[in-house]
Design brief:
Layout: E1 4-13, E2 16-26, E3 31-35, H1 42-50, E4 57-62, E5 65-66, H2 75-78, E6 80-83, H3 95-106, H4 110-119, H5 121-124, H6 136-148, E7 154-157, H7 166-182, E8 186-190, H8 194-200, E9 203-208, E10 211-216, H9 223-230
Helix pairs in contact: 3-6, 6-7
């Protein structure tokens, strides 16, 4: 059974259709990268999956259960968590307090908290610091920890490297690589950097004008193919198995 299935999702902002009939699946432990230029519909698709945006059509299934009508605050309880673009931490609170809020909201135990800190040792060193004083890379690591403490079956990560220095991006992807090696949660990652995306994911989809125009495993796709799809220069959908 798929960890996550999106079936024929259409999402609108007023009269503007941002996502057109998108369908995709992700298997347990799989890493799916979603790429595309600004305005391609990636973030709207993510917000729809997370329950922050109501689809006009279609459905979202988590582990075979229809969660289309489940509000955003209820989805972490079911195993779906999101690291939003911009991290969105409570900057006047400590790192520990930011993570504890997620624990309390989902009823997770201190054992879960400890397991996340074991997986992300850099976060353990930051627990007593105000979130507002952290670097961009540190904030991203804390945001990932906050999502992981809910013990998700599916983890959504929006614009992973946006606004980060090259060194911080390296650190974040080292963290994600460790999580991928653990294989406990499927990951769906929105990433602007094509090389990063293709080097990290198990499968990649490229969006253009709200539609998926290319899909495949990195080993079956060339960077040129993905770049052409990214900028709308491809010929047809050329989807790969």
């Amino acid at each position: 059974m798929s960890a996550l299935a999106v079936e024929a999702i259409t999402s609108r902002h007023g009269l503007l259709t941002a996502v057109h009939g998108v369908s995709l699946t992700i298997e347990p432990g799989e890493v799916l990268a979603v790429v595309g230029a600004n305005g391609a519909g990636k973030t709207t698709l993510f917000r729809t999956i997370a329950g922050l945006h109501r689809p006009a059509e279609g459905a979202v299934f988590l582990g075979g259960i229809d969660i289309t009508d489940v509000p955003a605050y209820g989805r972490p309880h079911l195993g779906l968590s999101m690291v939003p673009e911009g991290r969105r931490l409570f900057t006047n609170m400590t790192v520990r307090e930011n993570i504890q809020i997620a624990c309390e909201q989902t009823g997770r135990s201190r054992k879960t908290f400890g397991a996340v800190l074991d997986a992300l040792p850099v976060v353990r060193t930051l627990l007593g610091k105000p979130a507002g004083g952290l670097s961009g890379g540190q904030r991203q690591a804390v945001a990932i920890a906050r999502a992981l403490v809910t013990a998700p079956r599916v983890l959504l990560l929006d614009e992973v490297s946006l606004g980060l220095s090259p060194a911080a991006i390296d650190t974040v992807y080292e963290t994600l690589a460790a999580l991928k090696l653990g294989g406990e949660a499927a990951m769906v990652v929105v990433e602007q950097d094509l090389d990063r995306a293709m080097g990290f994911c198990d499968r990649l989809v490229c969006m253009l004008e709200g539609k998926i125009v290319l899909e495949g495993k990195p080993k079956d796709l060339t960077r040129e193919e993905v770049s052409q799809a990214y900028f709308g220069l491809h010929k047809g959908s050329n989807a790969h198995a």
